[in-house]
Amino acid sequence: KIFVKPGGVLSLQSHEYRSEHWIVAEGEAEVTIEIMKLDGTTELLRRTNVQVDAVSRETLVVDWKPTNSGLQWVKVTIDNQQAESAKVDVKELETEDFMDGVFKQANPALLGFSIVGASLLGLLCLMWLRLVTYTRGYGDEAEFYDEDDFIDDDDFDDEEEV
Fold it and tell me: Minimal CA–CA distance to 26: which of 57, 5, 3?
């Protein structure tokens, strides 16, 4: 039976995924906190004795930095009573390269147009350079000289006489 006085408050708590059994107790309890892995192996995080006074609460904080990927969960044992947490899917840390940061955030259409535009601009520059080098030598005919204008046959005769 539950008795509620007039004007009193009644707190109702409901848990969808777990059941709880509350008792008021005091004393010392051995607390074991372990990591359970999907393959059945366990990893001890902490084992300690906790002193709890009546009508008080104790908080035990444990840092857990997973070292392996995969499905894992926490198992807490208090004086041979066990409770398990929800399962945690630990994934490997993905490193991001410079190009991943650029291409993952870019709009694919905009990226495609940029690549095509840069390619066309490069092609136009190459065509312009080819045109400039091709027409460079076809200026005034007076600019071209023949080798015979500068070299005489006498220049080679001196070497033969030596």
Answer: 57
With residue 37 as reference, give the H or E element that holds it: strand 27-37
CATH number listed for the domain at residues 1-93? 2.60.40
CB-count exposure of residue 35 (10 Å: 0-12, 13-18, 19+): buried
Task: Tell me whether strands 70-78 and 42-52 are parallel, antiparallel or unpaired.
Answer: unpaired
Q: Nearest Cα to 46, choosing from 72, 24, 77?
A: 77
> Would you kindly state where each structural domain of the chain is located, as residue ranges?
1-93, 98-149
The reported pTM is 0.42
DSSP 99-162: HHHHHHHS-HHHHHHHHHHHHHHHHHHHHHHHHHHHHTT-S-GGG---GGGT--HHHHHHHHH-
% helix, strand, coil for the chain, step of 5? 30, 25, 45
Q: What is the mean pLDDT of each run of 10 residues along the chain (162 residues)?
A: 60 62 71 86 87 78 80 84 84 70 70 91 94 70 60 58 50
**If we measure between CA atoms, which residue out of 28, 118, 33, 101 comes closest to residue 73?**
33
